[in-house]
Amino acid sequence: MALREIARFVDVYEADLAAAFLESHGIRVTVTERFQTTVDPLMQRALGIRLMAHASEIEAARDLLARVKAGEFAESNEFEPTAERDMPSGIGGRVIAVMTAASGGFSGTSIPRRLKPVHWIGLLLILSMFVVPYVLLRMRAL
User: Kindly report the CA angle at 129 between 114 and 85, in degrees rounded to 5?
Assistant: First the structure.
């Protein structure tokens, strides 16, 4: 039995999600052009990623994908992040990013072994920008 196209996607990840969804509903599908598009991502837009299935399963697969697009399988997510929860991590992330950029950045995950002397100097300069004013303020308050 020959394979026929169910749908065409622009993104390989979207095609893989649709394939996994259809497989979970008992429809065997194949994602084509995966190799070409992962080697050269610009080809995703040119070729598209095709989802293929046997001719006897095409109508059921297209119906399921249409129902997904309509939002029939969507669930409410009560754990969706809110602005209040994201605030501290966003500020902390910005501070760490600025400190890392100002100190020259990290070149690996093992800080003592991977940081070059220039990085240590930058890190000490950043720390002194925070520690020295704090100490001076504490001495002034006494």
Answer: 80
pLDDT: is 63 or 35 the higher one? 63
Task: Give every CB contact of residue 11 below 8 A, 6+ residues apart in sequence.
Answer: 44, 49
Q: Are strands 49-54 and 29-31 parallel, antiparallel or unpaired?
A: antiparallel
Pinpoint the alpha helices (H) of 1-42. 12-24, 34-39
Q: What angle do CA 17, 19, 21 make, to 5 degrees?
A: 70
In the predicted model, is pLDDT for residue 102 greater than 60?
yes
Listing DSSP states for 41-55 in one string gives TTHHHHH-EEEEEEG
For 31, other C-beta atoms within 10 Å of its C-beta total 17
CA distance 3 to 140: 79
From CA 51, how far away is CA 22, in angstroms rounded? 10
Region of residue 40 (phi > 0: left; psi between -120 and 50: alpha; otherwise: beta):
beta
Rounded CA separation 89/105 (Å):
20
